[in-house]
Design a protein that fits this description.
The complex is a heterodimer.
Chain A lengths: L4 E10 L2 E11 L4 E5 L6 H9 L6 E6 L2 E2 L4 H7 E4 L11 H11 L4 H14 L15 H13 L5 E5 L7 H16 L3 E6 L2 H7 L2 E6 L2 E6 L1 H8 L2 E7 L6 H4 L4 E5 L2 E6 L2 H14 L4 E8 L2 H9 L6
Chain B lengths: L2 H17 L1 H4 L1 H18 L5 E2 L2 E2 H31 L3 H5 L5 H31 L6 H25 L3 H18 L11 H7 L3 H14 L6 H25 L6
Antiparallel strand pairs in B: 1-2
Helix pairs in contact in B: 1-6, 3-4, 3-6, 4-6, 4-7, 4-8, 4-10, 6-7, 6-11, 7-10, 7-11, 10-11
The chains are: A alpha/beta, B mainly alpha.
Amino acid sequence: MTPAISIQNLKKSYDDTVALKGINLTIGDGEFFGLLGPNGAGKTTTINILTGLVRKNEGSAEVFGKDTVSDYRFTRSQMGISAQEFTQDWFFPLDKLLFFQAGYYGIPKNEAKEKVDELLLRLGLEEKRSSRLRQLSGGMKRRFQIAKALVHDPKILILDEPTAGVDVELRHELWQYFSELHKAGKTILLTTHYIEEAEKLCDKVAIIDKGNVIKEGTPKELTGQLGHAGITINISDTDVDLNASLTDFTFTYAEGRLHFTVQDPEEALPIIINKLTQIGCHIQRVETTKSSLEDVFLSLTGKGINE
Amino acid sequence: MNWVGLWTLTAREVGRFFSVYRQTVIPGLTSSILYILIFGFTLEKRISTIDGIPYTLFIIPGLIMMNTLTNASSNSASSMLQMKLLGQLPDLLQAPLSSFEISLAYIIGGMVRGTVNGILILLVGVGLSGMPVVDPVATIGFIMLVSWAFSSIGLLLGQLAETWDQLATMQNFFLTPLSFLGGIFYSIKMLPEWAQEASFFNPIYYMINGLRYTILGVADSEPNTSLIVAIFMTIGFTVAAILLMESGKKIKQ
């Protein structure tokens, strides 16, 4: 079966910076695929090459077996993109912007009307259909981005950080919606900083760092292969240089939460607690978990996804 | 050809400037009325006729042309730059639209704005001064042709510009001076010889005189020369704007 997206040896440089060093990815038709990586890893460049915003230096990118450059009309009509950055517009109301978006994909207004109404209703924007984008909250703008990506009913939905900056409630609502779309047969390519999001939604993930795909598989495969476990310790805020004190461990630290990735938690936990106590950290809570995607990411890249 | 896409983007471009008509239509109309009332009717006491044409009537084709080309070029230029700065351009570049279709929609949008402004000022001129129009069809045709040419120039500038300041510089230091020096308010026969020769290198001189010929039946330049310059500019800048769009320079990475 022809894959929905096939990327072979994709390379891209910006002046002196090498963004992609020869990426290979295959995303099956109907798959929910997550692309994980820290900032600057090459996720958005990969997406932008697929959609035609960035020109590749080498390699190939295909959508349903067609080249994204020579067969761009076909490949672009198959994809809907919810970009990370919000679009702004000063002139037109939301429903008109959606009609324009459908029109760019060759769908006249009378044919797009049903879909526009359905999306505005489903994404909770019906009451705002006559509002301008500047009048929307951040969460509403995010929902509008998703409506815009879906208005031409694409087979492939590309979600670039679709829940960035939204509250927990909306994030869960969007996850529910993405799952529904996936069940309805859409292929979804997701990039995210929320590893939990990828773990919860994706059939398959690829971890990308410094322009290379360093690991690919189902979340279960990846966590199983590494056999790592996680230790989460909440400590009172500290000025101590944790990196200098915990040199033997791979960990992330943010807002009082330390997360360690270890091979054997029973062996590592007493040592970690001992070290933290020695440097004067007040331990509030300790939790050990089975290996998660976050642990896999941490052990492969040596850093947290937000670093 | 993505006809629906082309139509949609064109409708958006036209709808955009009509939605802010106070900024895009009214100012040109107001300033032209003031020019006709202040420059025309007051200076007519000192400069009664040029080539046998009352001074007020003489300046109207120039005013029409200045507004036509300013509006046509600023529409496509500002719309393109706005799309870049507001993050809307990816919506177009990721859609199944060719560079040709995108360029054409922008150019038609600017052409419509230039033509609408030109025709409105023509009507105001006729209303205020009772000016007869020798060949109305040729007048409207010439306004549309020049609008197309300058809309293409605007699209080129809009693609190249990265800030509003750059765009304003191009408008203020090139288009406006060339328009005034193209003979809106005077016949180049009133200039010293060196200035007359310099005017021959100003394309806007041919635009103003071409239109003056279609409206008043007199002009400094040969009517055919004006038409040929307008056609060459239209073809040349249209091709250049499309090729720049296709190259992706300043709009793609």
